[in-house]
Protein: DUF2785 domain-containing protein
Organism: Lactobacillus amylovorus subsp. animalium
Amino acid sequence: MIKYLEEEHDYSGYDEKYGWIHAIAHCSDALEVSVVQTSFNLDLINELLSATHKLFCQINKKFIDEEEYHLADVFIAGLQNNKLSSTDLIKWFNSFNFNPESSSQIEFHRFGNLKSFAEDIYVKLNTANLLDGDLKKYIEKEFSQMY
């Protein structure tokens, strides 16, 4: 599933002719179930981080059918099951260099996708009283306060 997520280039959600395609969301749903399994080890976490990084860097439009929320659920499950730490997630966020003030619409959409992803993690973990203080401060500083 990680390889599929990494290689998928059809970011369609709903299509009038075919209905729900939603490949990224469906793949994410499967990964959310997978990440909590004992066999989902550190190597797979690192592959997941790499694949999702590539996804956010190559998409050329804004997600419009909540794909980023499905992706966030994978990371939330990883955090809740101690497969991923807040420090790992902050380090992963820092690996992006999107410029939200760029004149490039693609760059703007990429940042917007990552921002929506981060905000969804923030809201869901905070609602469950599971939001780590460092992650909370990071998301507030890097995503919520400036834009």
About this structure: The two ends are 33 Å apart (CA to CA).
